[in-house]
Amino acid sequence: MLELRKVCKTFPGNVKALQQVDFNLKRGEVHALLGENGAGKTTLMNILFGLYKMDKGSIIIDGKKVKIHSPSDALKLGIGMVQQHFTLVPSFNAVENIALGLSVKDISKVAKRIDEISQRYGLTVNLWTPVWQLSVGERQRIEILKLLYSGARVIILDEPTAVLTPQESDSLFRAIRKMVHQGSSVIFISHKLKEVMDISDRVTVLKNGRNVGTLQRGEFDARKLANMMVGRDIVLRTKKALTNPGSVVLEVEDLSSNNDRDLPCLFNVSLNVRSGEILGIAGVAGNGQKELSECITGLRVPTAGRILFSGTDITKASVSKRIQLGICYIPEDRKGVATCPNLSVGENLYMKSASSLWYSPRVVASHAGQLMKKYAIQAKDHETPVKLLSGGNLQKVVIARELESNPRLIVAEHPTRGLDVGSMEFVYKTLIQARDQGCAVLLIAGDLDEIFTLSDRVAVMYEGRIVGYTEPDASNLEKIGLMMAGAVSETKS
User: Residues with Cβ < 8 Å from 413, sequence gap 6 or more?
Assistant: First the structure.
């Protein structure tokens, strides 16, 4: 049905993103695309969807060579893509968003057709509610409905479950199976090996811009796929020593706060984290987790409540004071918040050591060399701008800088989002090692596998509140999913 042949793409600086890559898609199949950060997955799909122009190679659809210069060209050929960041107008409802850009005279006919498609594939959504009032899962369904309404036969899904509850993920997988059963084809980009094995008919693995193999169902398992991706066995199910938590390091009492639009977003949140334990905060992104972490680290001023650190009230303490006390922060936004993109690896690593290390190029180089070796940071040298690093290496820079300050509390916000399995393994081991050495860890993540693997206790956030606590056990998956959707509330810790 669709073929990409000998595709090459080089970016400025002679960065070879794709080298002679072949990829094919059959009618009525789910074909997963796996690979480390920088392997070329997104670049390849951006070429297919018309966002990038390839240097060499060809695209063949139904036996005919085609040219794709833009997303509109791709859509005309029946190729659509749902990206991680949705392209919907928040004030429009589902029908208006889907009809946007089309020559529509009768909106009721459009709504009827959308309703038929949603019923056929199980993509139920409230058609007349403004998008800003809908859940992330419903917004994603609108994006898929938009493609199906336009007649797309090939649907590219880029990390589609990253922001979904378990129930929403199950619903999405049911819809995907219905789509392929009725003749559509799906390209599924994901770093979650369990999902890939559950949903895929075939899997193609990219490494360093090359296709290192395509396997059919029955030929792959998690170990084999991970080995193809990174060249060695990966252990994400890290065994933790039994925890024996010490004294309370962080205590949050009835904390409330506003968001960036000055609207209430946290409501009477209370929690505590002890030394030698990891408290996982589960929840769909946008339910107050970011604001909670910013209040704890001093980047946001709460409107009510108290924050205690080892019994001392730090609610009004400055960021620098919190750093001195031993609070470190691994933000979700590595490029915009955690690092200065235009500065070098060495300069970014030096930032928290400025008060204890005399600044000189020699000191920065020596300090960076030690940390780059200790944390296996892959870069040309310490003078490389961090903006040129892969997501995994950028996160290693952040973790190295923060953990070398000997923290007593780590606030880690989505620490593995967008990382490949090799980098995820590094982050997991690092956080567990810190916990075993007596550090208190507050882990904020939307990936329940990550929450279950790392956490000693789990709290669930929904609409700015802690709605329940539970043990990090797979048997509690359904209950946690319902809590994340606001359907169940258990406030006892």
Answer: 289, 290, 293, 329, 330, 331, 332, 444
Burial class (CB in 10 A: 0-12, 13-18, 19+), 343: middle
DSSP per position, 228-275: HHHSS----SPPPPPP---SEEEEEEEEEEE-TTS-EEEEEEEEEEET
Same domain (yes/no): 143, 204: yes
**Residues 46 and 167 occupy one common structural domain:** yes
Residue burial 298-333, b: 16+ Cβ < 10 Å; e: rest: bebebeebebbbbeeebbebeeeebbebbbbbbbbe
Angle between helix axes 391-403 and 421-436 (nearest 10 degrees) is 10
Task: Name the residue type at position 169.
Answer: S
Higher pLDDT: 171 or 233? It is: 171
How many residues are listed for the chain in this entry? 493
Query: What phi, psi does 18 have (nearest 5°)?
Result: -135, 135
- Would 49 be classed as within a structural domain? yes
Is residue 359 within 8 A of residue 313, CB to CB? The reply is no
CATH number of residue 286's parent domain: 3.40.50.300
Amino acid letter, 334: R
Can you give the pLDDT at residue 237?
Answer: 58
Its domain, for residue 214, covers 2-230
pLDDT for position 232: 65
- 5-55 pLDDT, tens per residue? 999 999 877 778 899 999 999 999 999 998 876 788 888 999 999 999 999
- Indicate if 150 and 263 belong to the same structural domain: no
Q: Are strands 440-445 and 278-282 parallel, antiparallel or unpaired?
A: parallel
CB 269 within 8 A of CB 464: yes
Q: How far is CA 82 from the centre of its chain?
A: 15
CB 241 within 8 A of CB 71: no
Q: Per the structure, how many domains does the chain have? A: 2
Q: Is the pLDDT of residue 474 over 80?
A: no
The beta strand positions in 14-153, using DSSP E, are: 15-25, 30-35, 56-61, 64-66, 79-82
- What DSSP string describes 256-322? EEE-TTS-EEEEEEEEEEETT-EEEEE--TTSSHHHHHHHHHTSS--SEEEEEETTEE-TT--HHHH
Q: Given a cut of 80, is residue 464 above it in pLDDT?
A: yes
Q: What is the Cα–Cα distance from 123 to 139, expressed in whole angstroms?
A: 11
Residues 28 and 124 in one domain: yes
200 shares a domain with 74: yes
Contact yes or no for 49/433 (Cβ under 8 A): no
Structure-token pair, residue 471: 């043990």
